[in-house]
Amino acid sequence: PWASPASALIRELGIHAARPFIGERKPSFIYFGGGTPSYLSTRQLSRAVDAMKSLFDWDQAGEIAFECEPGTITEGKLEILRAMGITRLSLGIENFDQHILEINGRAHGEREIERSYQFARSIGFPQINVDLIAGMVGETEQNWRECVRRTLDLAPDSVTIYQMEVPYNTTIFKEMRIVGAQSAPVAGWSQKRRWVDFAFNELERAGYTVASAYTAVKDPARTRFLYRDLLWSGADMIGLGVASFSHVNGTHFQNEHDFEPYIETLTRGELPIFRAFTPNAEERMIREFVLQMKLGSVQASYFESKFGVDVIERFATHIASLREQGFLSVEDRTLRLSRDGLLQVDRLLHGFFLTQHQLRAAS
After folding, report:
1. DSSP annotation string for 292-304
2. ∠ Cα 36 6 268 (to 5°)
3. Residue 168: which residues within 8 A CB-CB, separation 6 or more?
4. Do 56 and 26 touch, CB atoms closer than 8 A?
């Protein structure tokens, strides 16, 4: 009975809702993403949302975000999303060049970008975010500058920029193995960092504020990423769907990563949990610290109050190294990354991990 992905999600949410620790609470944020939920039809979306609202009261949610693939958007679908109460629509544009979109296997083309954005603007979403990826296959200096220019022409409320990675389970990685390639056919990390730096500089010139290693916002007082900020401060989150991650009451758990066992477990009326891990107090502190460093600055007082730990003293060795390299400054109990440090923060954070976790990150 749970053969379709949408109905399976509702079934899973229903099992969570039946448990007092979850069902008696109201969500602070709701995030439709981790894939491309806009592939659902308008009918599927309407049914799914109605069913979810019957299980959880959304009235107190401060943010309801939705990821969209531009090629899947119609004006009718956007109207349904707006009626759902979506507060932030995130358009996965990634690049504006038709050829680059094609060779990277994206479902949308250049023509859908302007159409989907203008549809969204006309309907009146409170916040529209544009996603870009620096260093896609085929990316050039000229093209990247053009992508930044066209993003500024759209004038979205916020811009998220990721540096292209090639995980082992992607089509590009599998093609690399077939031909015996040792490195991905994408720009190197130093080049990608330069491109993100160029984009941030241009966005700042246009009045945007760089709010994290990945985001720039037009109006920091109005444009928020509540989902990110709460999660990076240890908030609980229920993730629905195949291979999704959750964090509840200090324990992290992941769902079954294949569709068949996921459905089989739901059919038995059980949560489809594949694995789980409960970190100790020190690991929880480190997790929040490294996540909040991605915002560009960290207040030591937060960790003293919540964990009873002086992070400046606890991480003194690595902090001294980062300061010496010009990546970090410490003033008035605030740790602040330089722009160069922010652009490569994911690489720099490994030094804050516990020794056994540093080894895993390097492997």
Report:
1. HHTTTEEEHHHHH
2. 130
3. none
4. yes
Distance CA 322, CA 341 (A): 8
Q: Please list the residues that pair with 297 across neighbouring strands.
A: 336
CB count within 10 Å of CB 192 equals: 24
Q: In order of start, what are the domains of the chain with their CATH numbers?
A: 62-223 (3.30.750.200), 281-362 (1.10.10.920)
Q: Is 127 exposed, middle or buried (0-12, 13-18, 19+ CB in 10 A)?
A: buried
Q: Which helix (H) or strand (E) holds 32?
A: strand 29-32
Residues 82-103: tens digit of each pLDDT: 999 999 999 999 999 999 999 8
Of 301, 300, 294, the residue nearest 344 (C-alpha): 294
Alpha carbon distance 74, 82 (integer Å): 12
Please give the DSSP secondary-structure letter assigned to residue 107.
Answer: S
Instruction: List Cα–Cα distances, 334 to 123, 225, 235, 285, 312, in angstroms.
Output: 41, 22, 22, 16, 9
| 143-175 per-residue burial string, b: 16 or more CB within 10 A, e: under 16 | bbeebbebbbebebbbbbbebbebeeeeebeee
296 touches 210 (CB < 8 A): yes
Q: Kindly give the parts of the chain with pLDDT less than 70.
A: 1-3, 166-185, 359-363
Q: What is the pTM of this model?
A: 0.91
C-alpha separations of 310 from 51, 203, 317 in Å: 46, 35, 13
Residue 136: closest CA among 91, 97, 87: 97
Q: Alpha carbon of 73 to those of 45, 49, 117, 176, 185: distances in Å?
A: 13, 17, 9, 32, 30
Half-sphere exposure of 269 (CA within 13 A, CB side): 2
